[in-house]
Amino acid sequence: MKKVAFYTLGCKLNFSETSTLARLMEQHGYERVEFNQQPDIFIINTCSVTDNADKKCRKIVREAQKINPDGYVAILGCYAQLKPKEISEIPGVDAVLGASEKFRLHELMPTFIKVPAGQPAQVFNSPIEDAIEYHASYSLNDRTRTFLKVQDGCDYPCAYCTIPLARGKSRSDTVANVVKAAQEIAERGVKEIVLTGVNIGDFGLVDGTGLATQRQSTFLELIQALDEVEGIERFRISSIEPNLLTDEIIAFVAQSKRFVPHFHVPLQSGSNRVLGLMRRRYKRELYADRVQKIKELMPHACIGVDVIVGHPGETDELFKETYQFLNELPVSYLHVFTYSERPNTTALTIKPVVPAHVRAERSKMLHILSDKKRRAFYDSQVGRSATVLFEEDVEDGRMQGFTENYVRVVAQYDPLLINETMPVRLTAINAAGLMEVREVEPELEHQ
Length: 447
Prior knowledge:
- There is one protein chain.
- The chain is an alpha/beta fold.
- The chain contains 13 helices and 19 strands.
- The chain has helices at 12-27, 51-67, 78-82, 84-88, 105-108, 163-167, 175-187, 219-226, 247-255, 272-278, 284-297, 316-328, 356-381; strands spanning 3-8, 31-32, 41-46, 72-77, 95-97, 122-124, 145-149, 151-152, 171-172, 192-196, 234-237, 262-268, 302-309, 333-338, 385-395, 398-403, 408-412, 421-429, 435-439.
- It has a 6-stranded parallel beta sheet, with helices on both faces. A 5-stranded mixed barrel has the order 15-16-17-19-18. Strands 7-10-11 form a 3-stranded parallel beta sheet.
- The N and C termini lie far apart (57 Å).
- The model is unreliable at 443-447 (pLDDT under 50).
């Protein structure tokens, strides 16, 4: 039996797909092992959102060669679709699989040939227009939380982004299939599902050719159906575009049995001028309205924000607009991305280009602001009751977990609490910035 190991770079979507590919390989007679356990085959699932992700891929290939110089190395994922020739010339790489080919990994594996040193890798890479099939995926690496893919691809031509070039047109699973997958996950004892995709608010386009004239369903219909799935205690929405986050979706989550009060809503810039250059589909006024609506119906909701600094055309004044806008918004934390040039994107034609050291300074400012926002949000939660889903990781006799509204807590290790939801009182923030808790009786949890 051949031993195979997987390494995943990038987003929750990649993790869901890696997990599914690993199960497929096991079904076809391969033994899955850890990366450092002398596997015969290394599979590296890549990201290409930033230049740093490309560099990480090269580093992982070098590590694989150290672990097993005779091991077979295959690269798949977004980087593999975008730059197959470049990857094929990386020393140690034997195969490159594009977006249409990665879910045929088990079929193609028997045709793989170990490439002699100095020779380019085999390339299995179709044009992105051929990536029209939808492949259902979900992760099972962590019993307490599963990433469930519900949508793939994107039809939004944002100026800085290569994802449509790497993953193709927007396409989704059916509501019935997603519900079935959630039921299968529940049977495995998982308590929380995170819904993931490239643009999940665009759920409902089953035809990946981009020719579909009407969607078969909506994201609201999907979450309404999932709310009825027995056995799953929590559903969490990973990320949703502000222009697709409707009043109806917010209102539904506010009264839902299982969807938690946690939203991650990409902003990218708080300047309408920069949003226009980015080719985003909303203005900052709409974003502020979405945040206000969430807080109106769910005052204790956690709201995360994606923001890009240093996009071409972002002057000092326009960056200050973003900073001030975020500073005044009642959001809970920021995910800050420093703009990096990506081939074949329209952002490359926009002037002025922001110098690298200025991008770094702006990133540092927003990271500090994020720390302040998170601390203020945690401070607002002290004294409240909540339920925590405890995880398996244990360090120094302490275990961690998340509340419904994404406050990370720590408690004394108790093996009975792993993968269990426990009513707690949030008592204080410790020196590490984590929330201390004490257990409360279930009948007191809402007092």
